Amino acid sequence: MDISLKGKHALICGSTQGIGLATAKVLAGLGAHCILMARNEDGLQAAMKELAQDESQEHSYVVADFSIKQQLSDAIHKITTEHPVAILINNTGGPKAGPITKANSEDFESAFQQHLIGNHLLATAVLPGMKKLGYGRIINIISTSVKTPLPNLGVSNTIRAAVASWAKTLSNEVGIYQITVNNILPGLTDTARLGSLIESTAESQKTDVATIKKNMISSIPMARFGQAEEIANVVAFLASPAASYVTGTSIRVDGGRTPAI
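Request: output the structure for the sequence above.
Response:
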């Protein structure tokens, strides 16, 4: 099975921590030239030091905030001018937690811009290069809420579903060019994002963090939170030549927690 990414340029968004950083480390280990993108330059510089690198690899980073459209547009223009991107990992922090009845229109507009519009802007920018290469992998890190809406994540549930529908539509249109588009749906993964969600849920339910954590773990058949590296390993497979006939899918990596088939 060919999972080597040697010689391929991979753009990994949100790559200073959590699933994004874990993905960058795995892809670098498989030989990819990693281009890290995030809004925190200090974090990007620190992340660069964690990537495996041999004499043939050239890693780099670019600073961009997904909530600032022009900044994101300038960043991807610079990247595609310098390199043909073969792998795009769309990954950015989720909208803040809270019930949908407490959300306002600005919350939805901001999340739509940051997630769907940002993903689309990057994808359409890298598509010409992928077509020339005859190889392309667009992978979106979203959420199991695509299958089952999650409590206290009203805005996130709404926007994540929109991204999944966008991705399926895109996969149908670009498959002829041997470009695949897939979604990864992480379950409860031990990251800073999960920690924030646990604290928010504990506050809204007027209970303690330990109780919320225990209840969450009890809902997972594997009886533990996932690790960022476990999500990254599935991303790496989808990014590889071995996944050449997998497209238009939403793959759960959640320890069996999602109740839907």
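The helical segments are 18-29, 41-48, 69-82, 105-133, 154-174, 192-204, 209-218, 228-239.
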